[in-house]
Amino acid sequence: MTSKVKLNVKGKNTERFIKRLKSNDIDILKIEYIKYNEINIIIYKKDYEKILNIKTIYDVNIVDIYGIIKIGEVINIYKYLIFFILLGISILIFLSNVIFNVEVIHNDKDLRNLIINELENYDIKKYKFKKNYNEIQNIKNEILNKYQDKIEWLEIEEKGTSYIVRVEPRIIPNNEESYEKQNIIASKSAVLKKIILESGEVLKNINTYVFEGDVIISGNIYLNDEIKDTIKAEGTIYGEVWYNVKVEYPYIYSEIKETNNYQDVYFLKFLNKEFEFNLNKFNEKKVEEQIILKHTILPICLVRQHQQEIETESFVLTSEEAYNLAINKGISKINETLDNDEKIIDYKVLNYNVEEDKVILDIFFTVYENITGYSKIEGE
C-alpha cells in the first residue's frame, strides 16, 4: 500500500544515473531496460522530489503510480460514480430493512385479523423496520402466551421485505357433544369388544354387532321398566371395525437420502438469471433460500441459500418385494389414523393384480377402535 511511482528515464548514460540515485540513498525497487539510453524504474513516491533535484540533463517522466496514491487517483477520477454506487447500496440496505408487506396465511378471517392487530402492536407492519431474530421469537412467544386458548402454533418467517405468518388455531375438544343428560352411542357400525363404564346402564353385550347410532350406555335409569332418573351417561366403548384399502406400489422407485454435507451459498439474481458464488457445487441438493438484499425497482437481488446435499438411489423390485412393501404401505395408512389405544387386529389381501410397472392390492383390515359417540337425551 506504500505509494510508489514508475519513472521513464532518457539520457546518454543511464548507468551513471542509476549510480547517482544509489549514492543519494534512493531505493530502486525495479529496473526495466528499454533501450541503451532509456530505462523505466520504480521508486518510492517520497524520493521523487530528490530525483527532480539531481536529474540534471536526464529526461524524467512519471508513467504510472502504485499504492495509496493510485487508489486516491482512481477515487478522484470515478468519485461521482463511486458516490452514486455507495448511495444506491445504502438505499438498498435501508429499504431491505423496511417491512413492505405482512401476510397471515389462514382461511379464518377473524384469526387473520387478530394476528395482524397483535403484530401491529409490536410495530410489525408496513413501512416499519424489521426485527432481529430474538425480537421475533419474543414477540411470537408473547402472542402465544396471550392467546393460549385460541392459538396452537405460530411462525413468523422473514422473506425479503415481507413477513409471512403461519398460524394454527388451538382445537379444543368438542364438548358440545358432551351433554348434561346423554347416552353413549356407537359412532360407527362394529362388533362390540370392550365397554368402560363410568355412569349409566349398559344395554349391549360384548361381541354383539351394533349399528352406527345404537345406544350402548343409556343415561336413563330404569326400575321395573320405568324411567326413574335421567343422568349423563359416561364411558368409553371399543369395537371391531373394518376398512378396505387399495394400495399401488411400483417396481422401480427412487429414494432420496440426506447427507451431512451443508453449505451456505450466495447468488446474485438479475431478471431470470442466477450468478452463483460457489466453486463446490452439489449435484443434488435441498435448498432453503433467504433474500438478503432486494432492489424495490430494479429486478436484482442478493440471495443466500442454505444447501444440504442429497443423494437419489433407484431401486428395482421383484414382484414379491413390491407385494410386501405394498402391504407395509397399507398398514402405515391405517396406523396414521389410529390413536395409541387403537390397533390393527388383522388384515387380508382380497385382490392382487400384477401390472407392467406396479402391483395393485386390495387389503381388508380388521381394526380395534374407539367408537364412542354421544347423543343428547331430550326432555325429562
Structural class: alpha+beta
N-to-C order of helices and strands = EHEEHEHHEHHEEEEEEEEEEEEEEHEEE
Number of separate helices: 7
Distance between the termini: 99 Å
Helix content range: 10-25%
For the residues shown, what is the average pLDDT?
A: 85
**Rg over CA atoms:** 41 Å
Strand content: over 45%
- Strand order, sheet with most strands: 11-9-15-21-20
Shape: elongated
Number of strands: 22
Poorly predicted residue ranges: none
Can you tell me about this structure?
The protein has helices spanning 14-23, 48-54, 68-77, 79-96, 109-121, 133-146, 319-335, and strands at 4-10, 28-35, 38-44, 59-66, 101-105, 151-159, 162-169, 182-186, 190-199, 201-202, 209-210, 215-218, 220-223, 226-230, 234-250, 252-270, 273-277, 285-294, 300-316, 343-354, 358-370, 372-376. The relative contact order is 0.10. The protein is an alpha+beta fold and 380 residues long. The protein is built from seven helices and 22 strands.
